[in-house]
Write the structure tokens for this entry.
Amino acid sequence: MRSATGRTRTLTARQRDVLCSIRSYQRTHGFPPTVRELTRMLGVSSTYTVTCHLRRLAVKGRVTWLPGQSRTLRVVGERRKASGVC
């Protein structure tokens, strides 16, 4: 699906992994993960990689956060499957 700006709104498998990780952490801890914690959770070596995923998710309207501020990450536009998986 394309948005009004022509950008695709469907998620890649990795973007779904990022969202699932954020939700899982939020359920377990009661607050969102930091970018550094997401980096460890996703098994990548660079916070820049996670930041790039978050930027793309923000463009797609799936997350918001304030770069440079800890624990401001929020998942928006929830579209979970009926099975409840992430």
In short: The chain is about 45% helix and 5% strand. Residues 13-29 form the longest helix (17 residues). The chain has a mean pLDDT of 86. The chain has one domain: 13-75.
